[in-house]
Amino acid sequence: MTPPDGTAPDAYAKTDRSRIRRNNVRARYDREAVHGVLDAGLMCHVAYVFDGQPYVTSTAYWRSGAYVYWHGSSASRMIRRVGVGVPVCFSVALLDGVVLARSGFHHSFNYRSVVAYGTAEEIEDTDEKLHALEAFTERLVPGRWAELRAPTEQEMKATAVMRMELREVAAKIRQGPPSDDAEDMDAPVWAGVLPTHRAFGRPEADPAMRQGIREPDYLKHIRFD
Amino acid sequence: MTPPDGTAPDAYAKTDRSRIRRNNVRARYDREAVHGVLDAGLMCHVAYVFDGQPYVTSTAYWRSGAYVYWHGSSASRMIRRVGVGVPVCFSVALLDGVVLARSGFHHSFNYRSVVAYGTAEEIEDTDEKLHALEAFTERLVPGRWAELRAPTEQEMKATAVMRMELREVAAKIRQGPPSDDAEDMDAPVWAGVLPTHRAFGRPEADPAMRQGIREPDYLKHIRFD
């Protein structure tokens, strides 16, 4: 079964909540930019309000169509509180570099971030939930799902999958060298960017793994730095 | 001037807000664990409530003593809203690996995260603020601050530095191989961890930099992957 992913608009809504004020030259509302950031990240921060208090849960997520998804234990505070349809702020931030400017003031980060406002709902339909979990696993390690046994009924009950439609969404992206003031450009100080990225190390096999299992080919497609 | 960093307790308060329920074997409240995670991260997520709606700002942060700090434009929404002392949820999450278990259910991330609840205050004292900005720069790139011109009065006014005392704080840490069910241990599937880490690339000099400036020695101390 195909989930009702909807069709993502060319650009997301710029509302009072989602419109970026500071450094708005960095703001992007178009689908390409927003999806690009979302598809590059692995961990999101889900914020919600309970009893007037803000809470944040950091967790794995994935995107499909115009929805972001995350999962958790059916018994978790986050799932129980967010599942009732309260306002959610969904946030992803990727650090790309430390920007060393000629003044302290213009030091910065290069980054790609997305913030989405909306409400989340729990996926109740079992087939749809299974499809979502498959998409999640395949996104992390393409080729993995087919090797795994099917989830048990109990595991499916213990797992909640949340979905939030992307509507009011903004990406904010800073790239490139420092933006120094004109009068600082000749300062006798090194200026530039110290780039950062997420790197994968060599896979570490579980010491308890049964004998004779080779490292799967799908792990060989990951770029190790 | 030394900021009033306070003395961090041996362990942080386990309150109704901060106590970890799910997978509480991963919970840590001791200073060593909490500070270890905070000192390893570069970006935090600051959540607050405005008009019943949760907002999250991802930004740079640093820790000193029993306080976390972050900064922003004095005119930013986040600074204006958080500066009045509303409840804040401060969150940092570091991804250390993708855990490939023998069942989909036990797939996981290795991670280190910290969540702190409290209120933030803006640092008003100019000397204290300057000291904090120096600590921030030196934390990012030790040795950098001494090379930079002093901030101007206007730059200091345009920059707000926020401080939040660490009181109700919990770290959550998952490490090591998958935790599979006993009946899955002999499954014919590769199990283990795909480790991830933040890597730095070679420094990229600003093409507009004036001639004859060598790459500073302090950039050579950073480990490039």
Automatic annotation (TrEMBL), chains A, B:
Residues that span the membrane, as ranges: none
Domain of life: Bacteria
Pfam families per UniProt: Pyridox_ox_2 (PF12900)
InterPro entries tied to this protein: Pyridox_Oxase-rel, Split_barrel_FMN-bd
PANTHER family membership: 5-NITROIMIDAZOLE ANTIBIOTICS RESISTANCE PROTEIN, NIMA-FAMILY-RELATED PROTEIN-RELATED, FLAVIN-NUCLEOTIDE-BINDING PROTEIN
Name of the featured protein: Pyridoxamine 5'-phosphate oxidase family protein
Source species: Ferruginivarius sediminum
